[in-house]
Design goal:
Largest interface: A-B, 39 and 39 residues
Oligomer: homodimer
Number of helices of chain A: 7
Order of helices and strands of chain A: HEEEEEEEEHHHEHHEEH
CATH architecture of the largest domain in chain A: Sandwich
Distance between the termini of chain A: 48 Å
CATH topology of the largest domain in chain A: Jelly Rolls
Strand content of chain A: 15-25%
Shape of chain A: elongated
Strand order of the largest sheet of chain A: 1-8-3-6
CATH superfamily of the largest domain in chain A: Jelly Rolls
Structural class of chain A: alpha+beta
């Protein structure tokens, strides 16, 4: 199976370019919870997700985190290969949220082809624009949405991704996702409990009233 | 004068591409305070600043603003031509902070050339990566820097841009830049006044102690 055909522009590359990618890309796997790319580390390479789920986040100097976006099957992580572009002046960290298999494309090979292939260069722009849109959404969330909306949004999104109303996640982990202290998360979850929207037990949040949460996100 | 040579990749375009740009780009000017591009409006086109200063910002549903980045001479605004890429799923507004002259490049012409020219496609990626880096910096500011640091940072940056320690700017305008209510700005400026860092008069903020402000940004 040639996973490189997952690239929508694969057919627009010439034989030499295709062969360069084929001979350099490697399939790798990583266990849930492990770190795949560390912001300040070297250029890991482009990551093309084959199965599983990755989380990318930014980290503050004192260790706080905020989730930027998630990567699912066929998604590409560009910023783990930030050396392909001079103007990428920020660091992200990538960890596996589930056991994940991925194709790793060496940065130098990708860069070499991108520099002469308009289709690959434009595809790269589109990926970046898409991630940029995710982060702009986040800016709006952080700047302008009150925390109850953001937490309700997060819980509904999690339930959707996991396909269950029983979420196994700690308050601290949610805080890391949303860039808020654990205490703020716990307090709002207790408020949601009192409203009959969720119920809490150790390490688990059970969603009791999806419509109610959805109403909060639309306030 | 062919302002299109401001594009670093001008020499890498062929004659046909150069002529298409030459025959379609037009010089325009706009007065200080006027709006050049309105987020939800149509695709204005690529803006190449010739002189003056533009401000780009995002707006919340209830009218609050946050400055994303400024554009100076030779800077390009890509997101005023968001129709060149499918994945740009957010809106920005662009206004003139000073009387500004700019070259307006029609979106469809730029897109047409970008699709076949690897140099122009890669240049476009670099611009986007650079703006992305600006916004990631902003996310860190908003998420993790306390407001005193952000305000001190803003005042020093303004003084630097304007080349004067006497800033003619209202508290409301600063609030719009930083995404905070006017009251928060006024309160912190009074704190700075008490610390001997600035002095206030109607419509003016005078910086009295640059080193002191710089110390706050490094707290």
């Amino acid at each position: 199976m040639n996973y490189l055909t997952y690239l929508p522009v694969w057919d627009k590359l010439d034989k030499i370019q295709q062969n360069k990618l084929l001979s350099s890309a490697v399939v790798r796997s990583i266990h849930k919870g492990k770190m795949l790319h560390n912001g300040s580390a070297d250029c890991t390479g482009l990551i093309l997700v084959l199965s599983g789920q990755l989380r990318t986040f930014a980290t503050s100097e004192d260790g706080r985190e905020i989730t930027l976006y998630r990567l699912f099957e066929r998604d590409i992580c560009l910023f783990s290969a930030s050396c392909i572009m001079n103007s990428i002046q920020f660091d992200i960290t990538v960890t596996a949220e589930k056991d994940t298999e991925f194709l790793l494309i060496p940065s130098d090979i990708y860069k070499e082809i991108m520099e002469i292939s308009a289709p690959l260069a434009n595809y790269t722009s589109e990926i970046m624009a898409s991630r940029f849109s995710d982060v702009m959404w986040l800016v709006e969330q952080v700047m302008w949405k009150s925390f109850d909306k953001r937490l309700a949004d997060f819980l509904l999104n999690e339930a959707n991704i996991e396909g269950t109303n029983t979420l196994k996640i700690t308050h601290e982990a949610i805080g890391n996702h949303l860039g808020n202290p654990r205490e703020v998360v716990t307090r709002m979850l207790k408020y949601f409990t009192n409203e009959g929207l969720v119920s809490l037990s150790r390490g688990t949040i059970e969603i009791k009233n999806k419509d109610g949460l959805a109403k909060i996100t639309m306030r």
